[in-house]
């Protein structure tokens, strides 16, 4: 049964007429050149579209994000300065909770992280 079905599908596929470029009136070269010209035209349109998207969407979006992050960082710096002013010029000590600054094993370069910043992070060499 399966063999008969497979054979009939193969015979049906062979019976489908195939495209012959030489008998359609145009030569294969003319068809190729027309298709190549259409492809280049489409590529130029797509390039122009993405150039416009870059200039009119991405660049203004980046500018808006830069302005938003700048404002957030200015507010954060003002808040830090306010905290310092309230506490005599230094930041208040962070709570010594057990789950903060856990180290399962020491870093190869010392007790602090690789991106240690003394103004923001707790100095683990003092602990």
From TrEMBL:
It comes from the Eukaryota. It holds the Pfam family COX6A. InterPro entries: Cyt_c_oxidase_su6a, Cyt_c_oxidase_su6a_sf. It is found in: Mitochondrion inner membrane. Gene3D superfamilies: Cytochrome c oxidase, subunit VIa. Keywords: Membrane, Mitochondrion, Mitochondrion inner membrane, Transit peptide. One of its GO terms (cellular component) is mitochondrial inner membrane. GO terms for molecular function: enzyme regulator activity. GO terms for biological process: mitochondrial electron transport, cytochrome c to oxygen. Belongs to the cytochrome c oxidase subunit 6A family. PANTHER family: CYTOCHROME C OXIDASE POLYPEPTIDE VIA, CYTOCHROME C OXIDASE SUBUNIT. This is Mitochondrial cytochrome c oxidase subunit VIa. It comes from Panaeolus cyanescens.
